[in-house]
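Memo to structure team: turn this sequence into structure tokens by end of day. - J.P.
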Amino acid sequence: MKKFLFWFFAVIITITAVIYQRLTGPTNPKRVKFSIENIDYRAKFPRTSETSVTLTEALERDIQERYSKLEFKMNPVTPDNFTIKILYKRYPGDDTLKQIQTQNNNGGYSFEFPSQPPAGKLIYYPVVVKDGSELVLCEEEGIIIRFKSPVPSIVLLPHILLMFIAMLLANYSGITAFFLYEKSLKAGYLVIITLGIGGLILGPIVQKYAFGAFWTGWPLGEDLTDNKTLFAFLFWVTALILNRSKPRKYLLILAAVITLLVYCIPHSTAGSEYDHEKGAVVTGR
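Reply from structure team:
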């Protein structure tokens, strides 16, 4: 029964962190609420999109006119006298805002942005138009969308799975450190394996597909996702080495807490960004 409870709490903590990851982070959909004529509307606007433009084409200024289709829905469904247009420009930069019109498809809306290089960003402002009146959504902060190259599922899915298995094992190791020390140690070694393969091997491969570079963390760059993964991995290695000479259970708990905090940092925060002036991907943005 006790063993079941340990796994139960480890799963609950992991699921909570997964949900938090889904609700936060700069590439997850932007949740927007607004009211018109005493009716409350909700929408989720995309903040990531795939691109067919390559870094080589961007560097050579050989980008043909290509577009990325994006979609969003309004809840409840907007009436027929609603129209929504999008104001957008490159980000960062001082470009003039351009305007496109969305298409209403039975309550869902679609529009097309000019495709950007991998890690390229646009900032946009949805504008709700009704009977000649306009309401600009997210007028102050805007919505920033980042583009990425497609990542094969055969690489992406194992990466995601192993990262969350590593977190589950880290939670279990921390919870059981003072009760089932040997099992806690075994879970710790499995954390190193899963985090090493998922985060330090498959993670860079995913990033290479998406943004054109294997590693953009320390010492090559300031990518927070790379750095936090490396930090958690090294802390687990240190904790397990120091537990070889004598039991230091508190280090396993500390490693688990640090791993949880690392996972709670929204994914892609301070990540890759294409600099149009330099013609290169920079990090820590």
